[in-house]
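Before going further, learn to read the protein records used in this course. The integers have meaning only within a learned vocabulary of local backbone shapes. To see the layout at work, look at the sequence and tokens printed below.
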Amino acid sequence: MEKANLTPLKSIRKHCLDCSGGSPKNVRECEIQDCPLFGFRFGKNARRKGLKKSFDGATHS
């Protein structure tokens, strides 16, 4: 397999797929909530959810 330059989030997604036997459904239904990667398993940063909305209404002086 050729090594690709993966972003950290894509690397996490790949790890989660490997952990779940390659099944995206099993990644979605993962019950291991104490896993440090749990919030990132979809290849997105769950901590950024809603950040854009909070800046949309901001005014600049």
